[in-house]
Write a structure and sequence with these properties.
Blueprint lengths: L1 H24 L1 H10 L3 H20 L4 H25 L4 H12 L2 H17 L7 H7 L1 H9 L20 H17 L6 H16 L13 H16 L14 H18 L7 H17 L3 H18 L2 H12 L1
Helix pairs in contact: 1-9, 2-3, 2-4, 2-5, 3-4, 3-9, 3-10, 3-13, 6-10, 8-9, 9-10, 10-12, 12-13, 12-14, 13-14
Length: 327
Amino acid sequence: MYGSKINRDRWVITMIFAILFLLTLSSGSLFSTAYFKTRYEDVLPISALGWIFVVYIFGLFNHLYLGVIFCTSLCIVLYLGFFYSLFLNRKNIKKHITMLRKKTFTTAFFIYWIISWVLLIVLNGLQASSPDEFSHWMYIVKIMDMFDMFGTNACVNAWNSYPSYVPGMAIFQYSVEKYYHWVNGGSVFCEWVVYWAYYLLFISCSLPLLKRQKSKGVGCDELLNKVLKVIIILFVPVLYFEDLYHSIYIDPFLGILAGVTSSLIITKDRKDKNWYYSVYVWLAIVSLVLAKDVGVIFGAFIAVLFVFDYLSNGGVKREKEALLLIQ
């Protein structure tokens, strides 16, 4: 009886932790939906990648933990802004809430939350098992969690087997680990949380591929299209990385992020290449550079591809026309 109670309490803590972090990560999407009428999947990847960039800046000054607190505080402000939008639209509140519901509770939203919860259950209790995880990919997050600074810092560099590796993914994993500490009320490092954070970022960055295209069908056809994309995103990488779902190597994430970003640049309709598309692409480039040294090559390729696509599709002309309209 006592053992079952402990197990039940642990799962309650786990669920609260997951809900708290997912809601925190969703704050940007809700705020943007309220004021810019974007869809959930448009902005959530920006929130995830932007989180890494902001905490990285704080980490340069040896204040990683403060960076997590800053991002959390910013998310609270975004939620306050979201609720303020209800006040601003109080005269047409039903229309505003209908818009929020349609733009937020999309097919991509449900796919994202369902996969996140399935992974939470499947990965719970998982521990590091490979030599590279012991020597770096898991251990670097432990170092950051212990000292609240990068593993490349001179104070802790003696424990780092690969001091030249940049900590992009580790920053996100470190942040999620801190959230688990807050909910759990302790400081015991949980390795399965690191795994969950890895795959959560993996899925978050793939969300733009699940956005409904205006030219595509709706209803069953749209759902089938999204299910097919989910299958491709989740299972095709296994052909190249057999241990994808029981390791936290950075290489699969590099491939997925570079592939998704390149695919968006090449296949996205010209009229859909708006401000949040551009923000996502540039944050993806930064995240590739911060993920691993070889990410510089991927980032440079995508940057060239983005600029070439921008110029060849009359991007400068569109910007001038937009400025003239504003004036």
